[in-house]
Amino acid sequence: MSLDAQVNEEFVEEMEIKEINGVPLTKLIYDDWDNIWNFQAKPNDLLIASYPKAGSTWVQEIVDMIQNNGNVKKCQRTNIYIRQPLIEWKPLSVNSGLELAMKMPSPRTLKTHLLVQMLPPSFWKHNTKIIYVARNAKDTVVSYHYFSKTVPLLPKSNTLEEFIEKFMEGKMFWGSWYDHVKGWWDKKDKHSILYLFYEDMKENPRQEIQKILKFLEKDLSEEILNKIIYHTSFDIMKQNPMANYGTFPKEIMDQSISPFMRKGTPGDWKNHFTVAQNEKFDEDYKKKMAGTTLTFRTEI
């Protein structure tokens, strides 16, 4: 078999969808699930968790800036997906998140998009600190729709309307948004979890970064805090190749179709949803979010 044929065969395998506990993921993740589930977290690890396209990369960069006392050069030492690997990710042609995580010296900062019940048990056993960031459903679905166009292995929809239907049905990689945000919300009072909202971060980044500082038991000067706010702003991060996935292999993410950091504006869903789509989405949302104390703002 030629090298090109082998690569093509591996790529087809990677694109194949397999379910784990009813959650669609890639075949490569499925095949490696025992290793992922048995991953050994450490008490001094920090885990950043979110549903896809909810702001985890933003929080990652903020945390790295905090850990490096605002030293921009140190934060640009390598790509963000290497600095803080996505533990369950097993892509073609680059190291898996597990491989990267296991090679890292402590203390490690790691990332996950897993539902709370799918997180490796060692994180709970060691009471590892977790920062969870949630974004309102409407902006998440629009952002995820654009993102899916850039990543060949993600399930596609020809239209936003089709994508919204899949989103409401929970037929998404990493599962249902509703189950995701509610599951982590319910866990936050039983574990060391800081639950943040994307909309709050956009409205008052200083306040939310101070919450992170307190959670991490860090104290930084006003000067360094201002530096972190500036360098983790959307416009600056969008220009940062170590944070915007600009160096990611094109066969995994093609940003000529849509940038990884596209708009980042709460309420952008209004430019995409039709009146009918919005009404249907709201009706479904009320049913799925009934009984939870968790609330979101769809604009600021």
Can you lay out the helices and strands and say which pair or pack?
Blueprint (H helix, E strand, L loop, with lengths): L2 H13 L1 E4 L2 E4 H5 L1 H5 L8 E5 L5 H12 L4 H4 L4 H4 L13 H7 L5 E4 L9 H4 L3 E6 L2 H14 L9 H10 L7 H11 L5 E5 H6 L1 H11 L6 H10 L2 H5 L36 H14 L12
Parallel strand pairs: 3-4, 3-5, 5-6
Antiparallel strand pairs: 1-2
Straight-line N-to-C gap: 55 Å
What is the share of helical residues?
40-55%
How many helices does DSSP assign? Answer: 16
The ordered H/E elements are HEEHHEHHHHEHEHHHEHHHHH
User: Can you identify the CATH superfamily?
Assistant: P-loop containing nucleotide triphosphate hydrolases
Broad structural category = alpha/beta
Radius of gyration from the CA trace? 19 Å
Query: How would you state the average pLDDT, rounded?
Result: 86
Beta content: 5-15%
Q: What form results from the Cα inertia axes?
A: globular
Low-confidence stretches: 1-12
Could you please say which CATH topology applies here? Rossmann fold
Q: What would CATH call the class?
A: Alpha Beta
| Beta-strand segment tally | 6
Oligomer: single chain
Largest sheet: 4 strands, parallel
* Largest sheet: spatial strand order: 4-3-5-6
How many domains is the backbone divided into?
1
